[in-house]
Hints:
Elements: H1 9-19, E1 25-31, E2 46-51, E3 59-63, E4 66-72, H2 75-84, H3 102-113, E5 115-119, H4 121-127, H5 132-159, H6 163-184, H7 195-201, H8 209-216, H9 223-247, E6 268-269, E7 274-278, E8 281-285, E9 290-293, H10 295-301, H11 309-319, H12 328-341, E10 344-345, E11 361-363
Parallel strand pairs: 2-4
Antiparallel strand pairs: 1-2, 1-5, 3-4, 6-10, 7-8, 8-9, 9-11
Helix pairs in contact: 2-3, 5-6, 5-9, 6-9
Amino acid sequence: MTMDISFTQAQVDAAKGVLAQLDGAELAFLGGSLAVGLGHAMSDIDLYVVGDGLPDRELTYQHDGTWVHVNPLPAGKVAELVALATGYRATGMDRSQLAADVKTLNALVRLVTGWRVLASPEWVARLETLSRDTVRKILAARHANVFAAYAEDACGALCSGDLFTAATASQLALDAACEATLAAAGDLYLGPKFLFRRLARTPATAPWRDHLWRLTHRDLDSDGAIRTAVDERLRAGSQLLAWCAVDGWDQPLASLPALRQAGSQGPRRSGYFAPIRFVDGWAMIGPEDGYEVSEQIVRLWRRLDGDPLPDLYAALPGAEPQLAGYSAGEIDTALATLSELGAVEDHQASGVGQPSDTLIARESPRFSCHPKVAPAGAGQPC
């Protein structure tokens, strides 16, 4: 497996030599694939500079035989990037922080992962408010939202008999789930070319790499094979997202559950749903609508691998200590609610359970895939 490749000391020295030729630089950093260890033999040396009097376009300079690509950045643009990542603030109704264009997000990632070469006192103070943890959450939630959109496309395409589109959408959804998981684990990067290299080098995702590779590179030589691939890709992606939302939010994701064969004698989570965290709550977004859920519901949902209910009830307290205090009846009622929403398959409710105040799963316009505004006079979305 390829080892991480970052800037060499000679390359850093060359960048400093080029910087010395530029007048007015106030902030400078090395960024791109080399900055995050993803370089290769042909990787560019990208130096980003901010300041008055700098070139107004990209130029390449040579220093001691090494070419350095200089990218001037407007100070106002960098200030906007810092403001974007001073704190996670996406809500169900306002997801603008997650909807930043790819160019802006790419610039933000390069800024937060860059190797700082020069910074004036003013820029040092300003960059102290830039939060890598916020960028991690933005990317994780954004990719989860992308998964939900592609899962909806896969579902609609299957219903229409368009298997080619369903297969393509399911792969794009799985890619988004992988990106969300890498971000949750602290691997900040944008772009598909290094995806499996990153999965392999990140401790949390490394055990899943081969499985994800097989899901991506499998023969789709029949209608049945396509339908199976769509189902397996989305189930894997939704499980990854559940771990991101629960264990990869307040701190970087350290591990994922061991891979296991799903059972067929109990409830299973639907792969068409994605849990996403906002400042004002947790959402479970599916192909037809989005719902407000609680952390406890997501913890329960992520454990649904087709095991018989008695086995599930017995295993939950050890696997999810936060669910230890719930009765079998409360769990059964929660599963029935999730089943009605379409987020759980193959559950036969007993009808004897009582609802819990904290196992919450209910309609909520603000947590839809596209937030809905309530009609005038109907009160605030809830």
